[in-house]
User: Fold this.
Amino acid sequence: MKKLTFMAAAAAAALTAGAAHAAPVTFTKLTGVTGAPGGAATAVFKADLTTAGLSAISSLSISDSGVIGGSAPGQFSGFDLDAILISTVNCATAACAAALVPSVGISFGSGDFSPGTQTAPTDPKLFGTDAAGTGLDNMVATLGAFDGFSSTLTPAGFISLGVNGSIAFNLLSTVMITGPLFLYIGEVGDNGELAAGGIEVSDAPIPVPGAIPLFLTGLAAAAAARRRKAAV
Assistant:
């Protein structure tokens, strides 16, 4: 049993340790706005990932700055994220970014969302979140496209992080930075809420919920099989 406990601890350490590195990225605002027709007010910001100092990227995280800016209250509190896209193409305008085909896939299903607080008057949950308000509803947020409809009456195509909220995603596969690579992020409303300094890229994936327990269950099963074999 002591051996199994040691193996479990070692496995947990192996999954959480290692030479992982994260780096903040600096954004520049592109010319113009984009988004859904009739409510196109998404500002697009670009970061050159070759300046992050990493040789590879596996995940990214976005955090609201905590500064109460020009956002609407309640379900629209905090940074309103329209889209995230990574491409080798260097765009100068929001329209160019909106038309890009991603060079790197992002696993929106892997989203690790920590909802921030709402400014009054509050709503049951933040916009673009699931029924419980604790996860991303990408059927509403559609973070793979710059299609935000900037409206408090008929909103669509984004997620509101809340004040001090955050969200993180794994890439579909680790990407090596061997040439030009740019990260584009859309801010609904163009009201200065970009989480300056709160956006990072990392060469390690974010933990998948349940990964360690499942791995340790496998270790326990393997140990039990060895004990049965030894008893024969």
Notes: The beta strands are 22-24, 28-29, 42-48, 56-63, 80-87, 106-114, 159-160, 166-176, 182-188, 199-202. DSSP finds four helices and ten strands in the chain.
